[in-house]
Amino acid sequence: MPVPILKQGSVLIASIQTALTDTDVLRLQNKLIEQVGRYRSRGIVVDVAAIDVMDSFVARSLRAIAQMTRLRGAEMVLVGIQPEVAFAMVQLGTSLEDVHTALDLEEGLALLESLGGEAGRHGGPGS
Amino acid sequence: MPVPILKQGSVLIASIQTALTDTDVLRLQNKLIEQVGRYRSRGIVVDVAAIDVMDSFVARSLRAIAQMTRLRGAEMVLVGIQPEVAFAMVQLGTSLEDVHTALDLEEGLALLESLGGEAGRHGGPGS
Amino acid sequence: MAAPAAEVRVEIASDDDVVAARQAGRRLAEQLGLALTDLTLIATAISEVARNITAYAGCGEIVVRQIEQRGRSGVEVVARDEGPGIEDIERALQDGYTTGGGLGIGLPGARRLMDDFAISSHVGRGTTITMTKWAPA
Amino acid sequence: MAAPAAEVRVEIASDDDVVAARQAGRRLAEQLGLALTDLTLIATAISEVARNITAYAGCGEIVVRQIEQRGRSGVEVVARDEGPGIEDIERALQDGYTTGGGLGIGLPGARRLMDDFAISSHVGRGTTITMTKWAPA
Ligand SMILES: Nc1ncnc2c1ncn2[C@@H]1O[C@H](COP(=O)(O)OP(=O)(O)O)[C@@H](O)[C@H]1O
Ligand SMILES: Nc1ncnc2c1ncn2[C@@H]1O[C@H](COP(=O)(O)OP(=O)(O)O)[C@@H](O)[C@H]1O
Q1: Shortest Cα distance from B45 to chain D (angstroms)?
Q2: Which of B46, C8, C17, C55 has the smallest number of CB atoms closer than 10 Å to its CB?
Q3: Are C54 and C18 in contact (CB under 8 A)?
Q4: Which atom of ligand 2 is nearest to the CA of D105?
Q5: Residue A15 carries which DSSP code?
Q6: Rg (CA), chain C
Q7: In a 3-state reduction of DSSP, which class is residue B13?
Q8: Rounded to whole angstroms, how far apart are CA atoms C76 and C71?
Q9: Residues of chain A positioned with their CB less than 8 A from the CB of B101
């Protein structure tokens, strides 16, 4: 099942709708790499609310995307991690300390906005 | 192929135009170290948009330049890393967490400007 | 009232099978009345050992079954393959150890996710991992 | 339609050759229709093993070829030298291990960049690294 990627302004939003195979994860990764370049995106939000399991393969791929994005001076935010999935990630040992997280899409977009203040935006209002 | 270095105010801009051999990388490193001293530069922007591969040798040299620059109270920003190059760097294991990055030259200069408030500029305008 | 112990068996050969196995395990655990958190822990552990089968052995199987022991009921997962085996089990159970470029947390992580965990492996003959999550008393 | 399997061979003796090898590998992978990301992963892995040839063995060669296996096609890279060999392969595959003042991520990194990765090395006789990236199914 391909993961739909929406473009909203300078942000890409990937909304995972269902359980992903490793192949699906790699496809998502490739698509994000391609689109972040094509659209010169400032940020990526990955919504994992519908994901059943965040195992070491998914965690590794998400971390790679986050680091790739940061190397471009942009940011990735992970949103919608369910409490039980978060708990399993901690037990497994992939707590993704270095990845930005937010409760849901709305808060993820707000977080991106505030992060953009450092690297991306120049001549922001009133400063 | 030598890498051209432009001087724009107190900033040096190194624009990599093509694939680099290790020798090219070492030459660039030496030239930047020499010019940052000669011109008392406040910052360096290295534009790697045209680079095909950022392997461990290039990554190590760029990190060395960033550290050297910092020791002089200035800052280096890496700009233009292509998404697929960034992704390969992450897989390789050189995500350069300690190096500033920005999307392109313009944003790199803006980032230097904002960083300058902390490191470089003293008595900057209006602050 | 004691229904025959439920059991599901999933052949593992591709990454679709990894998803199928963890979903089957989850459903069985759900039928036994385990809590949502436990279902997720079990599914995550199955995902790790099933992926190892595809990555290191090529193919194998996962069996998930209900077990009863000393009055407690639980879910037992057996992951079995006839692949190359694990040379140094103790090392394979250390965080960060990988021979395949992974994160190296699959086996130690699965052990943390489950209550009981055992590996039996013989080089050249294969690997069997047996792990259990007990329902709260 | 099956054209004879493509193959390129690059002698490695200087740092120009390192660039030539990764560009040749990239072009071949491009002809096979691999995605831009994969081309970059392959080129980066070639750069690492080719540099190791110049750094530790002096000279050697890189062969990049198209392969087919169980219905999948891929790009195989073989890096071969008759240099001093690697004494402790397992250690050489650990992140940060270097005998040459490098970052020590060339070999473990190349393993992560590619899908399959194998080293065969004999002290005093040389080193052969074989690594593969598979085209998506
Ligand atoms: N079913 C298996 N057959 C053979 N070797 C295995 C199997 N499962 C795990 N291993 C070995 O144990 C190591 C550690 O496994 P794991 O902790 O899951 O990490 P990873 O899968 O990321 O390498 C693997 O790299 C592999 O060498
Ligand atoms: N072709 C080779 N011949 C002999 N030794 C090698 C070769 N390639 C790698 N090595 C050994 O393996 C070590 C690790 O290599 P690598 O991970 O690429 O890191 P680095 O090149 O930065 O040292 C090297 O320091 C060297 O001792």
Answers
A1: 23
A2: C8
A3: yes
A4: 17
A5: E
A6: 14
A7: strand
A8: 15
A9: 70-73, 119
Beta-strand pair A11-15/D72-81: unpaired
Q: Are A54 and A22 in contact (CB under 8 A)?
A: no
The per-residue pLDDT for C100 is 85
For ligand 2, atom 26: residue with the closest CA: D99
Give the tokens for residue A98: 């270095």
Q: Do the beta carbons of residue A43 and residue A108 sit within 8 Å?
A: no
Backbone phi and psi for residue D10, each to the nearest 5 degrees, phi listed first: -125, 125
Look up tokens 């901690």; give the residue: A90
pLDDT band at D3 (very low <50, low <70, confident <90, very high): low
Q: Pick the closest to residue C117 from C67, C77, C88, C64 (CA basis).
A: C77
Tell me the pTM. 0.90
Mutate one of A42, A62, A68, A121 to test the B interface: name it (highest B CB count within 10 A): A68
ipTM over 0.95? The verdict is no
pLDDT at C1 over 60: no
Residue of chain D whose alpha carbon sits nearest to that of B87: D37
Q: Which residues does chain A have within 8 Å of residue C23's beta carbon, measured at their own beta carbons?
A: 19, 52
pLDDT bracket for residue D28 (50, 70, 90)? very high
> Nearest residue of C to residue D116 by CA position?
C100
Is some CB atom of chain D closer than 8 A to the CB atom of C96?
Answer: no
- Tell me how close the Cα of C70 comes to any Cα of chain A, in angstroms: 27
Question: Separation of D56 CA from ligand 2 center, angstroms?
Answer: 7
The reply to whether residue B22 touches residue D15, judged by beta carbons under 8 angstroms, is: yes
Contact criterion met (CB below 8 Å) for D78 and D128:
yes
* Buried b / exposed e along C79-117 (16+ C-beta atoms within 10 A): bbbebbbbeeeeebeeeeebbebbbbbbbbbbbbbbeeb
pLDDT for the residue numbered A126: 32
Q: Which of C135, C100, B91, C48 is nearest to A91 (CA)?
A: C48
Residue D48 · residue D111 · CB < 8 Å: no
* D15 C-beta neighbours (distance < 10 Å), count: 20
Pocket of ligand 1 (CB under 6 A): C 48, 52-53, 56-57, 81, 83-86, 92, 97-100, 102-108, 127
Residues A60-79 have a mean pLDDT of: 95
Helices within chain C (DSSP H only): 15-31, 36-52, 89-92, 106-113
